[in-house]
Amino acid sequence: MPPRTTAIHPALRLPPFDEASGTLNAIVETPRKSRCKFAYDPDSWLFTLKAVLPEGMVFPHAFGFVPSTRGDDGDPLDVLILMDVTVFPGCLVPARLIGVLRAEQTDHDGTTNENDRLIAVSADSREWADVKRPTDLREEFTRELEQFFVFYNEGRGKKFVSRGWKGPRVAMDLVKQG
């Protein structure tokens, strides 16, 4: 077995935003409609299977992270990417921020952290092209996204509490702080 290296995968060295286009760099961990939750492992440089969702439950949209950021939980900031097609784990998706689902997550040991979910639209999307902020989405859609995260976390022994939706300016500030 080769010795561990302290090298950082090039994907993790990407800036949060592409300076030329101004788009958010979003790296997909879990494709939409997947029952499998994948997570990037920086030590092995591989995407690992983190969990399998219960029968009938799938990720509603691509889920991943923003490189070169860090949230309260110590991981890169989470991002849900609305897009027209399904892509693979590790895919870099240029996207534009439309907002954030503010949230608190309580772990098994009772530790509570802010664990917001950035919401972005693929820069090449046709289906979601007119969506600029969370209020452009149907209320039923945003409620279903909240419920997905509640049920997903509940299945892992965690509690997820929505603190409401904020627009692109707050989302942009979170990325810059992260």
Topology:
Blueprint: H1 10-13, E1 24-30, E2 36-41, E3 46-52, E4 62-65, E5 78-82, E6 92-106, E7 112-114, E8 117-122, H2 139-154, E9 159-166, H3 168-177
Parallel strand pairs: 5-8
Antiparallel strand pairs: 1-4, 1-6, 2-3, 4-5, 6-7, 6-8, 6-9
Q: Brief description of this entry?
A:
The protein is α+β, with helices and mostly antiparallel strands and 178 residues long. It has a domain at 23-101 and 117-136 and 165-177: Inorganic Pyrophosphatase, CATH 3.90.80.10.
Describe the structure in your own words.
This protein has 3 helices and 9 strands. It is an alpha+beta fold. It has a domain at about 25-100 and about 115-135 and about 165-175: Inorganic pyrophosphatase (Inorganic Pyrophosphatase, Alpha-Beta Complex). The strands form 2 sheets. It has a 5-stranded mixed beta barrel. A two-stranded antiparallel ribbon has the order 2-3. A hairpin with a 4-residue loop joins strand 2 and strand 3. The longest helix is centred in the last third of the chain and has 16 residues, at about 140-155. The protein is globular, with a radius of gyration of 16 Å. The mean pLDDT is about 95.
Gross morphology is globular
Order of secondary-structure elements: HEEEEEEEEHEH
Q: Percent of residues in beta strands?
A: 25-35%
- CATH architecture label name of the domain at 23-101 and 117-136 and 165-177: Alpha-Beta Complex
Mean pLDDT: 94
The residue ranges in which pLDDT falls below 50 over 5 or more consecutive positions are: none
CATH class of the domain at 23-101 and 117-136 and 165-177: Alpha Beta
Radius of gyration: 16 Å
The separation of the N and C termini measures 35 Å
The CATH superfamily of the domain at 23-101 and 117-136 and 165-177 turns out to be Inorganic pyrophosphatase
User: The biggest beta sheet, please?
Assistant: 5 strands, mixed, barrel
Number of strands: 9
Structural class: alpha+beta
Q: Give the helix proportion (percent range).
A: 10-25%
Tell me the CATH topology of the domain at 23-101 and 117-136 and 165-177.
Inorganic Pyrophosphatase
Please list the strands of the largest sheet in the order they lie side by side. Answer: 1-4-5-8-6
H/I helix tally: 3
